[in-house]
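Lecture notes, unit on protein representations.

Consider one protein chain, 279 amino acids long.
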Amino acid sequence: MDLFREASRADYDQALAIFDVLVSASTAISQGASGRPAESGRHYHASLLYTRLCGWGVSALMALPGNRLSVAQFENWDFPAIASISRNLIECYIAFFYLCVEPIEKEEWECRWNIFNLHDCLRRKKFFELIGEEMDQLAKFDETAEELRDRLRNNKRFLELEPAVQKDCLKARKLYLQSQDELVEKFGIERALFRGLYVLLSSHVHTFPLGFYRIGMENRGRGLETEVDRMYMTTAVKIASFFIRRAAKEMIQLFPGADEGLSEMDHAAIIEPNHDVET
């Protein structure tokens, strides 16, 4: 495990080059899978989440200093921006794995799916309530939410959950039946390492003190290339590459032939293991 360590400019450039190839390959896979009828709900949601993941990858690439897509008069080493995109990319992959990739029984999948559906319904209702939507629209959300609750109450897997967990799911307070830590261990990432990375990224996403107290120290946080910001950026690129690579492999398994248009270099980049991240 060698993720948080001093990174030279050559280290960063190498990580950026690998990420660039992976993003390019991933968008090609997404295009290769497009236009196909979905074989199942798992496949349908995979196409949605993989499209979103590729979008995060492109956004990250265009925000990284020295990328080949953006024409800029100067390099902007803005780690908080990359931290935000990276965390979104990670969470997108977790949803992709949880809903579309992990091998589970039909009852388990339908339980997970309907918890997601109910969460979506109640969050949409809350959004429209807050912006002053008409009551007729809100009543439709209530009807849909009750239908989804009935589905869950008749799902064998849902009934096996602890009563407190059921209650939280039915009120859209809980979306996943496993913790992030439990899920990332299935990806081969050490739990403590991931939690530390997540704390770092989240501190910049939410502008916690950890994210701004040391701005100015050794020119950090000003958009200049510094040793610390370069290390953090390199780390973010490596972890993003890890999740994009996993998703690409799994998308090809879900949609055989989606990789037919890839070059040999793209295929090699997808197959290459993530020694910096995996245990």
